[in-house]
Amino acid sequence: MGTRNTGQTADKLSVVFTVRVIEGGEQGFLDLYDQLRKSVAQTPGHIVERLGAPVDDSRQWVITSEWQTAEHFFAWQQSEEHRAMVAPLRQWVDSTQSLRFRVVKETKGVMS
Questions:
Q1: Helix residue ranges, H only, 1-112
Q2: What is the dihedral of CA 59, 32, 97, 74, to 10 degrees?
Q3: Mapping DSSP to helix (H, G, I), strand (E, B) and coil, where does residue 67 land?
Q4: How close are the terminal C-alpha atoms of the chain, in Å?
Q5: Is the pTM of this model over 0.70?
Q6: Burial of 105 by CB count in 10 Å (0-12 exposed, 13-18 middle, 19+ buried)?
Q7: Contact at 8 Å (CB) between 18 and 103?
Q8: Do 76 and 82 meet the contact criterion of CB atoms below 8 Å apart?
Q9: pLDDT value at 8 more than 60
Q10: pLDDT score at 103
Q11: How far from chain centre, in Å, is Cα 45?
């Protein structure tokens, strides 16, 4: 599988999960997300998670997360706990899409 650079940027996995919330389902989605985020925050390898709300009428929400390694993410994603946790999400969404990518470069802004 090649050499690993533990702790280096190249090991990180970023996940972008888009969720199109059903009309009128925003509060139900947010209530469920609050439960999910507390659980995922305790998962080994999880670094950070962010929820983005739409700025237009698209109802398209974005969840981004960062993981120490792809192995950490896939272990969590394939667990029975994860499946049971996200199953109720289906009642609040029309469609979902998941993109996963290894971070190869990271640029941070200058804090003023």
A1: 26-40, 70-77, 80-86
A2: 160
A3: strand
A4: 41
A5: yes
A6: exposed
A7: no
A8: yes
A9: no
A10: 85
A11: 13
